[in-house]
Specification:
It contains 18 helices and 22 strands. By secondary structure, the protein is an alpha/beta fold. Among the domains are: 59 residues, no CATH class; 39 residues; 190 residues, Response regulator (Rossmann fold), CATH 3.40.50. The strands form six sheets. Strands 14-11-15-16-17-20-21-22 form an eight-stranded mixed β-sheet, with helices on both faces. Strands 5-7-6-8-9-10 form a six-stranded mixed β-sheet, sandwiched between helices. β16, α14 and β17 form a beta-alpha-beta unit.
């Protein structure tokens, strides 16, 4: 709890008529409590407080009108009977699971006190929702597969998830934290991660499936306890530079040109700008430094929701057409489908008879694949992406998870796969931490939970991320003491984190190969991979 939070608590009690020596709380250093009972023992004015993860007494603020602050309960069943709505007993106080001002959904036995409660932050609005909203199905897969395959025991418990909208982070994150989840899966966008990182630190571990923000490396903060299941963009700077040069050469060859016009499109997203600033430093195109070339242009566009600032996505697409670009480089793939469509719609009227530009993206985005599989356009050697590459084992894991989801009529894609990685890691880490401390997944604390990450990811016993290995993993990690495992993901061969909470990885160049509309169209490896230094191996062959 920060000094501001302590003063806010004092103000709340003062408004309620309570008498409290607030300065004694503010001035005192060290922990004040080890349990909520310690806070309640301080007197009547602390009757609506609880012990925070930082060891300070904080106010319990009811997030639902009509519910008395600190309304007493001994179980979540008491709360359900009183509120006649999904609710949970947290520190002897009833809290609704879905307040009227939140956009949340419940997955699994959320009102069962003997469950591991997880939170999830998933975007519900804008282009990000189109790309990442599909992971709700992965969260349901996680709870269903775990609860049917992980046999309950002294340490092992069922999983329940409260999933809320990350687009409304200022309201949904406090709500999730008030429920005391053991960890949070998400956020999914770098912009919301930055918003979270700029606020007060929290102790709840966060497993972010798709966060690759350079901020994780540039400004590590161990108190934030964020683990990303995607390799960091810092590792992709040199590979993306080299891919741009090689794809430009390929496009020039196909179009019988000695040089091509390359346009780099930047967005207003801070993470995108930070990555591209590094990307432009030392960028080579057409056999020479890109900076200062007449055949190299940079266009910036505003992607903020409801922003009237120029240039907008449509205006930027118009500018690309006016520049008669041969190759467009775009790292903000969440808006790639809209940008490509907008460019194609404007191209014929400006450049009649001229071939539209090729595109190089940072990351394989499912919406690009789905959007253009439904349109009869030429894709071969037009759409390229740099993304992380695994091996035959990770490919099998990806296929197994995708098959499970497709059988549930759910969509798949890289973001879905990484959610499976992060979701199972969140469960395995809780179990490993509980077994190490001889407690249960329900009562494991944050420090024990984070210790469990190491137990689950740094051993010799390989566990593939897929449903039919859950029972094996539980038997190993549920031991007292647990037997260490290593996770083989759906994309990364080994889920092992650096001290700043990021993964390493090898990148590869992908293409969309089909020339005709096909719902089976997928991003396909070209045969070229990159070391972190940007040195390539193999050749570009788009099937």
């Amino acid at each position: 709890m920060t000094r501001f939070g302590t003063l806010a608590f004092c103000g709340l009690l003062a408004l309620a008529g309570g008498i409290l020596n607030c300065e004694s709380i503010v001035a005192r250093s060290g922990i004040q409590c080890s349990s909520t009972a310690d806070c309640r023992a301080r007197g009547a004015e602390f009757s609506t407080s609880r012990c925070s993860n930082e060891g300070l007494c904080e106010a319990i603020v009811a997030p639902e009108a009509g519910l008395a602050v600190g309304s007493a309960c001994s179980s979540s069943a008491d709360c359900r009977a009183r509120l006649n709505a999904p609710s949970r007993c947290v520190d002897s106080a009833c809290l609704p699971l879905m307040p009227s001002n939140s956009s949340c959904s419940l997955i699994g036995p959320v009102e069962n006190d003997d469950t591991l409660l997880l939170g999830a932050l998933v975007p519900h609005a804008g282009a990000a929702a189109e790309e990442y909203g599909r992971v709700d199905d992965t969260l349901r897969w996680l709870a269903s597969e775990w609860n049917s395959r992980a046999q309950a025991g002294a340490h092992t418990k069922a999983i329940a998830i409260v999933e809320c909208d990350e687009s409304q982070l200022t309201t949904t994150l406090p709500h999730l934290l008030s429920l005391r989840p053991k960890s949070i899966i998400g956020p999914f966008t770098n912009a919301k991660f930055r918003e979270y990182a700029a606020g007060d630190s929290v102790d709840t571990p966060m497993f972010a499936p798709t966060i690759d923000d350079t901020l994780l490396v540039d400004q590590p903060d161990s108190r934030r306890r964020v683990y990303s299941c995607a390799p960091n963009l810092n590792l992709a700077v040199k590979p993306f530079q080299r891919a741009a040069a090689l794809v430009a050469e390929l496009v020039a060859s196909k179009r019988s040109k000695t040089e091509v016009k390359v346009v780099l499109v930047k967005t207003s997203d801070e993470a995108d700008q930070a990555f591209l600033a590094k990307f432009e430093d030392g960028l080579q195109l057409n056999g020479q430094p890109a900076a200062g070339q007449s055949n190299y242009k940079v266009i910036s566009m505003t992607t903020a929701i409801n922003s009237n600032a120029a240039p907008t996505l449509v205006q930027s697409a118009q500018a690309v057409a006016l520049e008669k670009a041969d190759l467009v480089v775009l790292s903000a793939g969440v808006v790639a489908a809209e940008f490509i469509t907008s460019t194609d719609n404007r191209w014929p009227g400006i450049n009649q008879g001229q071939e539209p530009p090729a595109f190089l993206l940072m990351g394989r985005y499912s919406r690009v694949e789905e959007s253009f599989a439904a349109v009869n356009k030429k894709h071969k050697e037009r759409f390229f992406a740099v993304d992380w590459v695994g091996n035959s084992t990770t490919d099998d894991n990806y296929t197994a998870v995708a098959s499970d989801l497709l059988s549930r009529s759910a969509r798949t894609g890289p973001s879905v796969a990484r959610t499976a990685d992060c979701g199972l890691l969140a469960a395995y880490a809780a179990l490993a931490g509980a077994s190490s401390a001889n407690t249960s997944m329900v009562t494991v604390n944050a420090r024990q939970y984070l210790d469990g990450v190491g137990v689950a990811t740094t051993g010799d016993n390989a566990i593939n991320v897929k449903s039919d290995t859950i029972a094996t993993a539980v038997s190993l990690l549920g031991n007292s003491p647990p037997i260490k495992t290593k996770l083989i993901g759906t994309i990364n061969p080994s889920i092992v984190f650096a001290p700043n909470g990021t993964l390493g990885g090898t990148s590869a160049l992908y293409c969309m190969s089909s020339d005709t509309a096909s719902p089976a169209q997928v991003w396909t490896r070209t045969g070229m991979t990159f070391a972190e230094t940007g040195v390539e191996n193999g050749s570009i062959a788009c099937p």
